[in-house]
Design brief:
mainly alpha; two-stranded antiparallel ribbon; extended
Length: about 100
């Protein structure tokens, strides 16, 4: 069913997914595991870069800063400049709204 408003289409898709998940929890778990495994395989560089940063955060060798774009004190995300070699360690700290903007650019 085509929708003129993308937001309405997105909400309808979320509703269909929630309904399916509630009706078929055993199948949903299997689908979710397969999708997660495929994502890890296809995007292995991104997964490696994320784990690298998470390990630094856990060990206390890296601490979050304020948003580097808007200056907000609370940052929930880091954004990688790249995912391979040296670049997986080059990140900028962003708030949620600026992080979304970085991915849209």
């Amino acid at each position: 069913m085509p929708y003129k408003d993308p937001a309405v289409a997105r909400e309808h898709a979320k509703l269909r997914a929630r309904t399916y998940r509630a009706r078929h929890p055993e199948r949903w778990g299997e689908i979710n595991r397969k999708n997660a495994k495929r994502q890890r395989e296809v995007h292995s560089d991104e997964v490696s870069a994320r784990k690298f940063i998470w390990n630094l955060l856990d060990k206390g060798r890296l601490t979050p800063k304020g948003c580097e774009w808007c200056g907000a004190n609370k940052t929930n995300a880091h954004h990688h400049k790249g995912y391979r070699g040296y670049y997986k360690a080059v990140i900028i700290w962003l708030c949620d709204s600026c992080h979304g903007e970085a991915h849209r650019k």
